[in-house]
Design goal:
mainly alpha; 2 strands; about 60% helix
Length: about 140
């Protein structure tokens, strides 16, 4: 059963990549004639939830950031453009809001989250002969 933790982290990391792609497809949303990039909110909440879930599997900060790193990797790929000159993410305020909304909330969450104590507990003192004779009192 030791493989459940790494497998869960793998799925969370893949989910970070896929969620970025899906959120980017909803980035050019409109309500009437007004741009309404609802995917910025989805990116902020989704990355915090993915990071929280990863930190429950393994509390180390780098491991908790794996889904956010995969999200960032997908975003960089979509910013680079394809071989035909087409882009999924274009230069505009929606893309900047998407980048900031997807990266800043997990950073704030990690800064406000208490860091677990990684040090081992000190060993218990060995009982002395006098405490054994008195019954441990």
């Amino acid at each position: 059963m030791r493989w459940i933790g790494p497998l869960t982290l793998l799925f969370l990391t893949i989910d970070g990549f896929v969620s970025c792609v899906v959120e980017a497809l909803y980035l050019p949303s409109y309500i009437g004639s007004i741009p309404f990039p609802i995917s910025v909110l989805f990116a902020a909440v989704g990355n915090i939830v993915l990071m929280w879930a990863a930190s429950k599997v393994n509390p180390r900060p780098l491991v908790a950031f794996l889904p956010v790193i995969a999200w960032t990797f997908a975003m960089v790929i979509m910013l680079a453009g394809g071989h035909g000159g087409d882009f999924i993410l274009w230069a505009g305020w929606q893309t900047i809001a998407f980048c900031v909304g997807g990266l800043l909330p997990p950073l704030i969450f990690s800064a406000l989250r208490p860091i677990p104590d990684q040090r081992p507990a000190p060993p218990a003192p060995a009982p002395t002969p006098a405490s054994r004779a008195s019954g441990g009192r």
